[in-house]
Amino acid sequence: MSEMGSVKSIPSPAISADERSHEVDHPSSLVAHFGAEQPLRLDCGVDLTPFQIAYQTYGELNADRSNAVLICHALTGDQHVANVHPVTGKPGWWETLVGPGRPIDPKHYFIICSNVIGGCMGSTGPASINPATGKVWGLDFPVITIPDMVRAQAMLIDRLGIDTLFAVVGGSMGGMQVLQWTAAYPERVYSALAIACATRHSAQNIAFHELGRQAVMADPDWHGGGYADRGIHPHRGLAVARMAAHITYLSDAALHRKFGRRMQDRELPTFSFDADFQVESYLRYQGSSFVERFDANSYLYLTRAMDYFDIAADHGGVLAKAFADIKTRFCVVSFTSDWLFPTSESRALVHALNASSARVSFAEIETDRGHDAFLLDVPEFFDISRAFLQSAGKARGLSLEDR
Amino acid sequence: MSEMGSVKSIPSPAISADERSHEVDHPSSLVAHFGAEQPLRLDCGVDLTPFQIAYQTYGELNADRSNAVLICHALTGDQHVANVHPVTGKPGWWETLVGPGRPIDPKHYFIICSNVIGGCMGSTGPASINPATGKVWGLDFPVITIPDMVRAQAMLIDRLGIDTLFAVVGGSMGGMQVLQWTAAYPERVYSALAIACATRHSAQNIAFHELGRQAVMADPDWHGGGYADRGIHPHRGLAVARMAAHITYLSDAALHRKFGRRMQDRELPTFSFDADFQVESYLRYQGSSFVERFDANSYLYLTRAMDYFDIAADHGGVLAKAFADIKTRFCVVSFTSDWLFPTSESRALVHALNASSARVSFAEIETDRGHDAFLLDVPEFFDISRAFLQSAGKARGLSLEDR
């Protein structure tokens, strides 16, 4: 990954020592601090201040400042899109798409990925210190929305001196942010790659999120969100929430192919509640490994943001109005076996974009890997992404030849 | 329901006072006690003794003893199929199908429904007293299987003096029991109505059950299954498990139609973790009402029994072998929007029955109501059930005219 380590250092504007005292630098990320003069106006009516955004960059901004690509992460992702994760030691979560030789190559693009507001990897969220009390925010942190996340990202992009993003790219909750970017700042987004997402959260989506939240809140160690002051964490509840979510990320067919009814290290059932089946063992691992890297309250806030997301509702119930006269070039991608964000949701988006006379291409990719497909090695998806960005880059006048 | 109250009283064989002391009569059900001379041989190798089966009957057994219909209940059902439930005060769980004027009418049939072994409504299960310790079994109760449930039902049917059942009927876990009846006792089942079920539990099914079990086990009030001795119950964990299961019982379309993104008693979001959306409020209610009537350990045992179910595995991996030369008349029913037990599972069963030259009819019913459809008012399903039973009754020589 050494060739990707060319992180640009951007000087932060001066902020007071008082503000500084409430901010924590993320050890392995860049951090943009926003002081009292730049509050984040949230949809709930609160001005969040001070706040900070932790982010990573790869590649270099060109002289025209026209080659910036913003990657938006999904629910449990973070800014470490294409570098070894500082907590887990695992590769970046989207190294299949982002990196040398990949469709989004730091050789061509200045790639930015920031931890969302409300997150827990360095951006201000419920695990941060509330400057009013000197204690962890917990449930006193204001509820945030997808538009709030995007508003914070726009402030970061301003800070980086970038007017127009060449591309905004994301899947799942990241795709929601892509769509919100185009609805809120159409003139700042040259091209948009929205993957495995929707313009609103469905009743079933909300149901699964509520299940996860109830699992967290049922854990006595959650303490009404005030676990941090007690030096504990609702590991058990969060693990159950993660297990529930993980089932929705995979298709029935993928689970059948990966695990079927195969037993774990044995041929006969134990007639017990041990993890006899491989799929049980897999789920337990997903749950227990997740809690080591994620804050339970952040999980509540981010799932809530997704539930509230409904672009049409913000435009009088007419989705096409959100994209009226938009110049952005869109590429919408869905996966056949994704039952969390099914193709029908992408089609509804494409119809609205067509009704707005937007420039849009749409691909439904055949795979049995479910929602997770957007993070996996799916060559057709990469080919489409590469072609879309190359075509847009040509129109934008970017030099995408080897240099 | 007065015309359905003609419960037949069947004298139990004498058992010793010592055995009696470990048995509890269910206040509003008949109970069959099985003493030391009649242990239940379980698949795990344990002989369960003594044990008891709580059951309800409706209608009267005819002189030929040829009109008995056994109803098998699903995961969270019980013997109160067609009478007001003694705990909840709600109508019987299958009064849409069973009752006066319904396809399974006590005027024509002697209807039996028993609580499964491992259950918590009067049959012996983990909430019963372990005679060896005088305390509640808890997790010392042996793990049971679908074949164990059916073996216990066969002993009940013997006790009732019935050789051949005119029909065995059930949906979901009840349908698994129907199939197990035909595989284990083909000569004792004249006709079989298997609804919304499968011959094995899929990886996704197991995953959802494991999620539910982990939710229960994550509740500190579960105490390794030993909550009863402490006078508590893992309400929170069991409610989360129920919420997860409930999502799987409904289709995405049904959730959308019932709730969509509609708010609960408000027009604008509260920007909080209250149940803003109707679907959240609905799920919370499903969770909290369930824990009032169901034992958490029973939930673990019955989900485990379903996970272990795999008829083909018990017959060298060849499903058709389970039904070789079977004379039973089958009717298999699935619902288009049931993603828990999809039509593909029913088709696999029908193919195996065809390969065994069995007499089988199959109906896939168009509905958006998901797995739950089998419990709801779906006229096409009732018409098919009625026609199948009438045709089989005619062949069996039953008098199904009004009398």
UniProtKB/TrEMBL annotation, chains A, B:
Copy the pathway line from the protein's UniProt record: Amino-acid biosynthesis; L-methionine biosynthesis via de novo pathway; O-acetyl-L-homoserine from L-homoserine: step 1/1
Kindly indicate whether the keyword Glycoprotein belongs to this entry.
no
* Key words of the record: Acyltransferase, Amino-acid biosynthesis, Cytoplasm, Methionine biosynthesis, Transferase
- Residues folding into a coiled coil are none
Disordered: region residues: 1-22
Q: Where is the active site?
A: S172, D338, H371
Q: Which reaction does it catalyse?
A: L-homoserine + acetyl-CoA = O-acetyl-L-homoserine + CoA
Residues that coordinate or bind substrate? R242, D372
Gene Ontology molecular-function annotations: homoserine O-acetyltransferase activity; homoserine O-succinyltransferase activity
Q: Does the keyword Cytoplasm apply?
A: yes
All residue ranges annotated as the AB hydrolase-1 domain in the record: 67-376
Instruction: Tell me the compartments it is located in.
Output: Cytoplasm
EC nos: 2.3.1.31
Q: Per the similarity annotation, which family is this?
A: Belongs to the AB hydrolase superfamily. MetX family.
- How is this protein organized at the quaternary level? Homodimer.
Outline what the protein does. Transfers an acetyl group from acetyl-CoA to L-homoserine, forming acetyl-L-homoserine.
Would you tell me the protein name for this molecule? Homoserine O-acetyltransferase
Q: Organism, per UniProt?
A: Bradyrhizobium yuanmingense
| Encoding gene per record | metXA
